[in-house]
Amino acid sequence: MDAPGIVVMGGSGRMGRMLCDLILTSDDMHLAGVTEAPGHAWAGQDLGTATGGAPNGVPVTDDPISVVARAQAVIDFTTPAATVAMADLCAQVGTVHVIGTTGLSADDIAALDRAAQTATIIRAGNMSLGVNLLTQLVRQVAASLDDYYDIEVIEAHHRHKVDAPSGTALMLGEAAAEGRGVSLDDVSDRGRDGITGARERGAIGFHAIRGGDIVGEHDVVFAADGERIVLRHVASDRSVFARGALKAALWGQGKPPGSYDMLDVLGMR
């Protein structure tokens, strides 16, 4: 069987470039194409030329239909609008869609769920093995402790990140809420400023730090009188997310349509 062809959305970005580099050096897959936004300087060029090297035969296009139709998977760390549009395209042509995009609204997620009726969609707020293990631990600890323990999620990222809380922070908050048997929407506390009054019992708080080149740090704190439990994950290299996405793209081959996440990919459920 031929190595599956992968399309990388937003190939000029930091994650896009890393994905392209990993695929180009892989024996398990090949880079079928790269997409960019209409009008982008790379559009219409060969990827090798666009990156300042020799041509490598990989097209960069702002019209993804042609490359996606010939590929077996699309990896997407872009924007909510672009992700929803790509999900519809993948559903039409039967290409696996691996989504690491964050900042998705409830309407965006509903649109992805509709696309998953006919497409194989693998979506995760974070694609690293460590974070997904952390999610399981957070769910377990939250289920073991009552709401006498206050839960706070603290996340830190580089100065260029545009959404907050991060997708990983929300994933961890969801795990804590599931452990307690409540809806995160009902207990989420995302902002404190001024005279806010005492902390509401049972709330799950979120705090975002932005600065420098921080790749990603997440702490989940369970705080009670006299003790604290802190669960932490630190990513020091963005490649952990890229490698997880590539693992998901390979895992998705031959899977039936539906919505999957990294716990499915890692065999953790």
TrEMBL record:
<dbReference type="Pfam" id="PF05173">
    <property type="entry name" value="DapB_C"/>
</dbReference>
<keyword id="KW-0560">Oxidoreductase</keyword>
<feature type="binding site">
    <location>
        <begin position="10"/>
        <end position="15"/>
    </location>
    <ligand>
        <name>NAD(+)</name>
    </ligand>
</feature>
<dbReference type="InterPro" id="IPR022664">
    <property type="entry name" value="DapB_N_CS"/>
</dbReference>
<keyword id="KW-0028">Amino-acid biosynthesis</keyword>
<feature type="domain" description="Dihydrodipicolinate reductase N-terminal">
    <location>
        <begin position="6"/>
        <end position="127"/>
    </location>
</feature>
<dbReference type="GO" id="GO:0019877">
    <property type="term" value="P:diaminopimelate biosynthetic process"/>
</dbReference>
<dbReference type="GO" id="GO:0005737">
    <property type="term" value="C:cytoplasm"/>
</dbReference>
<comment type="pathway">
    <text>Amino-acid biosynthesis; L-lysine biosynthesis via DAP pathway; (S)-tetrahydrodipicolinate from L-aspartate: step 4/4.</text>
</comment>
<protein>
    <recommendedName>
        <fullName>4-hydroxy-tetrahydrodipicolinate reductase</fullName>
        <ecNumber>1.17.1.8</ecNumber>
    </recommendedName>
</protein>
<comment type="function">
    <text>Catalyzes the conversion of 4-hydroxy-tetrahydrodipicolinate (HTPA) to tetrahydrodipicolinate.</text>
</comment>
<dbReference type="Pfam" id="PF01113">
    <property type="entry name" value="DapB_N"/>
</dbReference>
<keyword id="KW-0457">Lysine biosynthesis</keyword>
<feature type="binding site">
    <location>
        <begin position="100"/>
        <end position="102"/>
    </location>
    <ligand>
        <name>NAD(+)</name>
    </ligand>
</feature>
<dbReference type="GO" id="GO:0008839">
    <property type="term" value="F:4-hydroxy-tetrahydrodipicolinate reductase"/>
</dbReference>
<dbReference type="InterPro" id="IPR023940">
    <property type="entry name" value="DHDPR_bac"/>
</dbReference>
<dbReference type="GO" id="GO:0009089">
    <property type="term" value="P:lysine biosynthetic process via diaminopimelate"/>
</dbReference>
<feature type="binding site">
    <location>
        <begin position="124"/>
        <end position="127"/>
    </location>
    <ligand>
        <name>NAD(+)</name>
    </ligand>
</feature>
<dbReference type="InterPro" id="IPR036291">
    <property type="entry name" value="NAD(P)-bd_dom_sf"/>
</dbReference>
<feature type="active site" description="Proton donor">
    <location>
        <position position="161"/>
    </location>
</feature>
<keyword id="KW-0520">NAD</keyword>
<feature type="binding site">
    <location>
        <begin position="167"/>
        <end position="168"/>
    </location>
    <ligand>
        <name>(S)-2,3,4,5-tetrahydrodipicolinate</name>
    </ligand>
</feature>
<dbReference type="InterPro" id="IPR022663">
    <property type="entry name" value="DapB_C"/>
</dbReference>
<comment type="subunit">
    <text>Homotetramer.</text>
</comment>
<keyword id="KW-0521">NADP</keyword>
<dbReference type="GO" id="GO:0050661">
    <property type="term" value="F:NADP binding"/>
</dbReference>
<dbReference type="GO" id="GO:0051287">
    <property type="term" value="F:NAD binding"/>
</dbReference>
<feature type="active site" description="Proton donor/acceptor">
    <location>
        <position position="157"/>
    </location>
</feature>
<feature type="binding site">
    <location>
        <position position="158"/>
    </location>
    <ligand>
        <name>(S)-2,3,4,5-tetrahydrodipicolinate</name>
    </ligand>
</feature>
<keyword id="KW-0220">Diaminopimelate biosynthesis</keyword>
<feature type="domain" description="Dihydrodipicolinate reductase C-terminal">
    <location>
        <begin position="130"/>
        <end position="266"/>
    </location>
</feature>
<feature type="binding site">
    <location>
        <position position="36"/>
    </location>
    <ligand>
        <name>NAD(+)</name>
    </ligand>
</feature>
<keyword id="KW-0963">Cytoplasm</keyword>
<dbReference type="GO" id="GO:0016726">
    <property type="term" value="F:oxidoreductase activity, acting on CH or CH2 groups, NAD or NADP as acceptor"/>
</dbReference>
<comment type="similarity">
    <text>Belongs to the DapB family.</text>
</comment>
<dbReference type="InterPro" id="IPR000846">
    <property type="entry name" value="DapB_N"/>
</dbReference>
